[in-house]
Amino acid sequence: MSVLQAISAVLWHDYVLFTLLGVGILFTLWSGFGQYRALTHGVAVIAGRYDRRDDPGAISHFQALSAALSATVGLGNIAGVAIAISLGGPGAVFWMWVTGFVGMALKMTEVTQAMLYRNLNDPDNPHGGAMWVAKKGFARFGPGWAKVGTAVGGLFCVTLLVSTVTGGNMFQAWNVADITREYFGVPILASGVVQMVLVGLVIIGGIKRIGSVAGKIVPFMCGFYILAGIYVIATNAAAVPEALRLVFYSAFNPTEAQGAFVGGVAGWAFLRGMQRALFSSESGQGSAPIAHSAARTDEPVSEGVVAGLEPFVDTLCVCTVTALVILLSGAWNRPVDVPFGVAGAPAVIAAGDGAWTLEPLALEAQAGEPWSAGDQVFAVVTGDRHEGRDSLRHRLTGEVALTPSGPRVQWASIASAAPVEVVSTGIYRAYKGATLTAKAFDRAVPGLGFLLVPAVAWLFALSTMISWSYYGEQGIIYLFGSRWVMPYRWVYCLLILAASSPLIRTEAELDVVSTLGTGVMLAVNIPIMLVFGAQAMRAYHAYMRRLDAGELEPPPSQALHPRRKGPRERHPG
Q: What confidence tens digit (pLDDT) does each residue in 205-225 have?
């Protein structure tokens, strides 16, 4: 974990985030605020208005969007938002919105590039993505560049597989297992077995079955979750203006420590907000173009415009609902869940080598809910100044053990040159990721989190794992060939089982694991986008000129009598 944290510190340095934001602004301006086209023309394309019966591809625009959304609209929207607010405060929500807006331009550009360079050797089963953009695109620069393109494409596929294992598989499986254990007491390994079987039944069927399943699950789960969230927001309408004020204020000012929140500066909110928005929407990551490349169309830009809708749905709609529920409920800065009582806080003990811990804490008299072995808790302590948050406050985690004398908390240790002091008046149950969102719904409307979030979390996680299995599959095809696809599918299913284990202990560890894959993919995909960005923008503006001139308007009888294809741009640029 310490190695992963060191890698993450480099991948998510502030300068990297500034660069990503700058690239998003670049393509926003270059496309003439193409977000507008996504919200207008993109909807018309999804509705089938421009479909042609003999276009190459395997799935419809709507199914491609659903397959991509099933990967993006997932536990990143439930768990990721909770992590962002828990670690970064309300200001993180503002930076999620900013990232979602510029992410629409990033998504349009990368999908357009993928469609320009997709592999149509088998028109009924096309392949596409940044690896094909690199392989074919660099080859156009001259014979000496072909090997460079192949190598860059291979490097992207390696990062794709890293992200598939971490964010697309491990993050999803672990969150579902955790929330199922929290609410129903089901062993996490049992949840892993069920997830493995359900995912395996779908992915063995390939992209057509994935597109069909996603097209049914995604609209239902998004609508169900958003309606429940809107209900919570409506019942707390009077508090919404203050929540929004807090979001905007905290984006540029420090957020004081309150209850479970240990405080943080505006830069920390910026970091967490962008991290979680990029993880959730996958903008600029290069994953969604793989699903969109299977769409039936011979107009590359049309699918790029459709893809621009993803960050809008994912970040500006679904993530906002989750964020408002968490803020309105007060779950992010809730008071202690279990007071220390008359005995007071446990004593601080020196653990050697500059580390500190607390004496074990008996929970017999304090328990408000039944305790289970392995339950995670934390107390708020002061110590050295936190490098990122600029705060003296830290969370010292502990784990519940069931002893003959009753449940007791065994504490981890924290390194600090300054003496550690307990400042919280009790302990907090460590609600991580999706579990915190569920508790937020419960606090707003008692019982709603219990009824809603575990079910939606299962749907979100399953759909995300199904779509990400296909993404990883395309990386396997590029690196090793189609003969390795079936072994890969079996290994992917077994990884779900492996992920459903107590590998992750704290919210910070969950954050590192989930964003690792996103970080390595962005590091490779953003340069590819910049190298071939001009071609994508030329194709985009040429398409929009034809659209505005009425040249793309299909005849009313297109469903029965597809229009004969006229001259059109079929090559990059």
A: 655 565 566 556 666 777 888
